User: What shape does this take?
Amino acid sequence: MEHYMSAEFRISLFSAPLLNGAFSFYFQSARWRSWVQPLALLMKLDPLVSSLSLYDIANTPGVAADVSHINSPAQVEGYAGEEQLGKALEGSDVVIIPAGVPRKPGMTRDDLFNINAGIVKSLCTAIANYCPHALVNMISNPVNSTVPIAAEVFKKAGTYDEKKLFGVTTLDVVRAKTFYAAKANVNVPVIGGHAGVTILPLFSQATPKSNNLSDEEIKALTKRTQDGGTEVVEAKAGKGSATLSMAYAGAVFADACLMGLNGVPDIVECTFVQSSVRLGKNGADEVLGLGPLLKPELKASIEKGIQFANRS
Assistant: This one.
């Protein structure tokens, strides 16, 4: 699909969680050593990004200097420390939050909750203050709970807009497409959440359709999509989780947001909690309904996030 080039955007990227650039991105330090740097690289190469803001509690200026030497139009700035958080966020059109600790062997996404929930809450408070109208791409796990946390923080601040808050589940979509056909030119919608059995790839709605898949094959594909993160952690022998594929997926969704803001028609992506949405100049211009499919596990994760956000 052709990129419309009439507008530019500021993005902020927070390794300790945020995004700014004529999109802004925010990342947390532990993440700079894994998939956040590749994501910063991919956003620097995006022709729709005019300003890329990188933030963390430390070490960000070095990463920003490195990325800034790439000969693409986006201007890059690195910010470090709480005193520079406001500058990293101001004027951002898109904020990407991949902050927090990555998964380790034996960890579930719920195991990450107590650490990452507090980080997300504090970052969303800053977003409400410095760039309340930005699109927020939530990547920090557990997404099933961090998105509700963000929503509650924005509600309290009076800045909540359900059309501008997205849980990024694109890696599930990327995996489903790969496992379905081992091709790039297929589409498999994935709804639900972003953890285990709450991930619901709809192979029955895949295009192009395949009438040759048995029920057993669909169950196997579904299971592999749900356990994709664990597959990578085990393949890396406990020395890491998904990095390159996660960076790619994060960039795909961020670029879709930018194209929607730029007026490109018919940009449809799967996301949590709105499921499939048509992206436009106002964020999610249209939610494409797929029926009542809220699993008990997903409902529990949502409630967990809401309860955390509403603690004093």
Summary: The radius of gyration is 18 Å. The chain has eleven helices and twelve strands.
